[in-house]
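Lab notebook, design round three. We kept the backbone fixed and only want residue identities now. Task for the bench partner: fill in a sequence for the structure below.
Input structure tokens:
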């Protein structure tokens, strides 16, 4: 009997593949699909669990009580899309083959489908089979009128159930409202995020760390959680406050419900507030902020960089403080102050790591999906070449 769960259903579907196959040499086309499926598998990370591969799609799920907050999930989908588009561009750039399969790689794109509901999980030898009416809904949504009605070719389709469950109402205000109707299912309200603007905004993002000579204080800690999990906690004010060593932290100036460039972490230490204004926002990798230095000289400030680097234990979190900027007297006072904060800064970053590890340990264990082998990926890619697919 399948176990019944509440959670998130997620499909990443490579698009344009039927037309691509019709004019392509099959051997090279299968190599392309296998490579792109591997990109999608790499970015399907816990708490998402791969259910199975289906031709040119990766089907996964996540359980309600172990999931990300809404913005983190949106950013994870956006990162996956950017990684996919980069992979396509690299294939186009690096191939010298003149066959149709290689010349037409650039016609491939990606769509995502996200739904929240109740579903059963039936353990089979090769995969977790998902069953239930909500599973039917997300699969029916693969056949839709989104591009016909909106002109959007590559997108993420969120059902209204997901928007409500993850409190994405403000974020969805920048999306396109769209409704589909299916026999026996009725009307399904959805929200469409165009992924092409995401690619245009992020394709040239480059991580530019501090010059080593400008760092006056640097602390770090190992956290036994994946970067996606660390990021999910880092951007939540109640957890960020542990790292800041404050009494409380609030966030001002969200944009359409999102924390991003221009947003401000207002870090309170008693009655004193230290605003950290976000200058760079690179999900799962880096946050760069500007901080007004707590000295009696106006226009004195510094930069703080938070970096998340994956390692064998999980994540290596680093916090770097730049030398102060502004009037000379202010720079001298601020630099002396922050140089003397090394023990406190190390204590706070260690406390943050232990804090989020403890929070995660109190949550239900995340079930482990089956290992996806290279043979399984090749077999899934081969499905697309079978008659009727």
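Proposed sequence:
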């Amino acid at each position: 009997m399948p176990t019944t769960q509440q959670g998130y259903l997620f499909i990443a579907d490579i698009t344009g593949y039927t037309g691509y196959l019709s004019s392509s040499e099959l051997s090279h086309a299968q190599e392309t699909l296998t490579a792109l499926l591997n990109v999608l598998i790499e970015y399907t990370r816990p708490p998402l669990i791969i259910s199975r591969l289906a031709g040119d799609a990766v089907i996964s799920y996540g359980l309600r009580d172990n999931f990300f907050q809404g913005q983190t999930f949106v950013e994870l989908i956006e990162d996956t899309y950017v990684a996919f588009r980069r992979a396509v561009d690299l294939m186009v750039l690096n191939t010298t083959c003149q066959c149709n399969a290689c010349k037409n790689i650039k016609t491939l794109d990606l769509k995502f489908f996200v739904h929240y509901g109740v579903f059963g999980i039936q353990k089979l030898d090769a995969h977790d089979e998902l069953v239930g009416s909500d599973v039917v809904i997300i699969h029916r949504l693969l056949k839709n009128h989104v591009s016909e009605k909106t002109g959007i070719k590559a997108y993420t389709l969120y059902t209204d159930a997901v928007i409500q469950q993850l409190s994405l109402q403000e974020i969805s205000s920048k999306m396109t409202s769209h409704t589909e109707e299916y026999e026996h299912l009725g009307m399904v309200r959805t929200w469409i995020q165009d992924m092409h603007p995401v690619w245009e905004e992020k394709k040239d993002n480059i991580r530019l760390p501090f010059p080593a000579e400008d760092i006056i204080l640097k602390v770090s800690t190992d956290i036994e959680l994946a970067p996606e999990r660390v990021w999910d906690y880092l951007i939540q004010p109640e957890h960020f406050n542990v790292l800041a060593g404050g009494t409380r932290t609030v966030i001002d100036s969200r944009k359409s419900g999102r924390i991003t460039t221009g947003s401000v972490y207002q870090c309170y230490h008693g009655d004193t507030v230290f605003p950290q204004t976000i200058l760079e926002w690179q999900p799962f990798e880096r946050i760069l902020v500007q901080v007004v230095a707590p000295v009696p000289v106006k226009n004195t400030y510094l930069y703080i960089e938070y970096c998340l680097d994956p390692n064998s234990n999980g994540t290596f979190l680093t916090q770097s403080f730049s030398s102060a900027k502004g009037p000379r007297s202010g720079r001298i006072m601020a630099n002396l102050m922050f140089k003397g904060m090394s023990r406190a800064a190390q204590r706070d970053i260690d406390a943050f790591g232990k804090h989020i590890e403890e929070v995660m340990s109190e949550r239900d264990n995340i079930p482990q999906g089956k290992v996806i082998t290279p043979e399984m990926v090749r077999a899934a890619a081969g499905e697309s070449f079978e008659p009727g697919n």
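Keep this in mind before ordering anything: The chain has 14 helices and 15 strands.
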